[in-house]
């Protein structure tokens, strides 16, 4: 997502919502960055599965062992050639090993699209397609849309940090329900990915927070 788009997004968000305007003034320029390696969706999903529910260092160590065994990020073909013992030996749980092999099959049968194929699908079609895979939830696909594919209008309403950020900037007693947040955020379109980044920052204000490998 180029810097120019960030400036346009910041201006739109500020004009659409005075509370967002105040947040943007406090936080400063958006630092939401797109994957500069132009990673394939399959590769991004493999990394996301490895990192699910793990501390960043532990996940990085497991991914490192996988890459060492595979000679790089494991291809679909390599994953399907391995037995569970090999994958467990790299530090994966049985469930994650199964999920990764399911991803590998889905890449080979075309369910997981290439980057070029993904460019022809809108956000909701990609989400519906990928959450059909075991172990891949909507949030994971939304992160793929934002950080790998650079989609500008993603609002992950199930994300705790996003709902907490909204609660804080609006002075609410409780976090909004996902459906309510989706409706309330409509005026922020088509730049809700940038709004999401700012809401994460709002959720962290006043707290010491460890860097998140995904959300910046």
Low-confidence stretches: none
Task: Classify the helix fraction into a percent range.
Answer: 55-70%
> Per CATH, which architecture of the largest domain?
Orthogonal Bundle
The count of helical stretches stands at: 13
Quick one: overall form? elongated
Could you name the CATH topology of the largest domain?
Answer: Endonuclease III, domain 1
Strand content: under 5%
What does the radius of gyration come to? 18 Å
Task: Provide structural commentary.
The chain has 216 residues and is mainly α. The protein has 2 domains: 3-34 and 154-204, Endonuclease Iii, domain 2 (Orthogonal Bundle), CATH 1.10.1670.40; 41-148, Hypothetical protein, domain 2 (Endonuclease III, domain 1, Orthogonal Bundle). Helix content is 61%, strand content 0%. The chain has 13 helices and no strands. Keywords: DNA damage, DNA repair. This is DNA-3-methyladenine glycosylase II. Residues 50-204 form the HhH-GPD domain.
Secondary structure layout plus pairing:
Layout: H1 3-16, H2 18-27, H3 41-51, H4 56-70, H5 76-81, H6 84-89, H7 94-108, H8 115-118, H9 123-130, H10 138-148, H11 160-170, H12 178-184, H13 192-204
List key phrases describing it.
Endonuclease Iii, domain 2, 13 helices, mainly alpha, elongated, Endonuclease III, domain 1, 2 domains, 61% helix, 216 residues
Kindly summarize this structure in a few lines.
By secondary structure, the protein is mostly helical. The protein is built from 13 helices and no strands.
């Amino acid at each position: 997502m180029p810097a120019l788009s960030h400036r346009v997004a910041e201006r739109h968000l500020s004009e659409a919502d005075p509370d967002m305007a105040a947040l943007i003034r406090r936080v400063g320029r958006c630092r939401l960055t797109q994957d500069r390696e132009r990673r394939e969706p399959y590769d991004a999903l493999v990394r996301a599965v490895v990192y699910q529910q793990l501390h960043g260092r532990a996940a990085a160590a497991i991914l490192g062992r996988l890459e060492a065994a595979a000679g790089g990020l494991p291809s679909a073909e390599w994953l399907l050639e391995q037995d569970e013992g090999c994958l467990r030996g790299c530090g994966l749980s049985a469930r994650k090993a199964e999920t990764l092999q399911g991803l590998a099959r889905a890449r080979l049968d075309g369910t997981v699209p290439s980057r070029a194929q993904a460019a022809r699908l809108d956000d909701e079609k990609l989400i519906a397609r990928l959450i059909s895979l075991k172990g891949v939830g909507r949030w994971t696909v939304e992160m793929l849309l934002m950080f790998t594919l650079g989609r500008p209008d993603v609002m992950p309403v199930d994300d705790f940090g996003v709902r907490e950020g909204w609660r804080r900037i609006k002075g609410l007693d409780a976090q909004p329900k996902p459906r309510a947040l989706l409706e309330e955020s409509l005026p922020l379109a088509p730049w809700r990915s940038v709004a999401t980044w700012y809401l994460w920052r709002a959720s962290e204000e006043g707290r010491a927070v460890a860097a998140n490998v995904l959300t910046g």
